[in-house]
Amino acid sequence: MRIRLLLGTALLVVSLLVVGCNNISQAEYAAALAEANAAQAQVSSLERELSDVQSELDEAVDDLEAAQNALNEAQELLSPLESQITSLESQVASLQSEVSSLQSQVASLQSSLVWEQAKQAAVIDQMPEVPWTGAFNYVTPGLQAGQTFVPDYPVLVTVEVYIITASLGRGDDTLTMKILDDEGVELATISKDVLAGFNGWLRFDFEGGVDVTVNSTLTILIVDGGNTVFAWRYHGGNYYPSGSRIVSGVPADGDFLFRTYGLSTRE
């Protein structure tokens, strides 16, 4: 814009000189010519300045293109790295999951080891010397055969009951043992699949042990899965003064054959 104005001024001055040269003095002519020359000089200076700025602009454009090319090259190099990073992140997540799983397994194994050591350390708590003379009660859902006892140890680990197969041909069955406190509250329960033909001590291990109150009355309750295959041996008479046989929730004469194992402490 400045160049156009200067050019216009110069042309105007020249026109005045041409048109009105006969009407102005020599001094005015010289002043007008000087002004035209000055304007022309300023135009030349601005043209040089414009050329310099254009050169700087061209260099800036070249630098921008070079930077853009460098950015494109960097992005091309980064793209496979991003893919590798994503893959490595996935591998790390997978390994973290595997480590977590292994830690859980280790904790479980440690717990199992402690439990096995506890079972090995458990001692017989209650084992009434009850001779068997051939009597037994079927274990049925309705009968709910039971035996009360009084523990001497605060941690109940294992209970064994003497079970016989009383009805062949009915298939296998599932026997469930429950431990009740003196108010009938269930402290623990565990089930075992028993093959028909089994006769002997059936062992129920309560993993982790069951905290019980020493010198309180507990109940061992046995319930079957409905096939009525097995029976629990008992003997009439009061061979175990600390407890009694339970039939359908009612104390009955005699005692079932049972054994309990306990720990004096969890340490």
Which key features would you list for this structure?
Jelly Rolls, alpha+beta, 6-stranded antiparallel β-sheet, 13 strands, 267 residues, 7-stranded antiparallel β-sheet, single chain, rod-shaped
Characterise the protein shown here.
21% of the residues are buried. The protein has helices at 2-19, 26-121, and strands spanning 123-124, 136-138, 145-149, 155-165, 173-180, 186-194, 200-211, 218-224, 230-235, 245-247, 250-252, 255-256, 258-263. With 267 residues, it is α+β, with helices and mostly antiparallel strands. The mean pLDDT is 84. The protein contains two helices and 13 strands. Strands 1, 2, 4, 7, 9, 12 and 13 form a seven-stranded antiparallel beta sheet that branches. The protein has two domains: 1-121; 124-263, Sandwich (Jelly Rolls). α1 (2-19) runs antiparallel to α2 (26-121). It starts with a helix and ends with a strand.
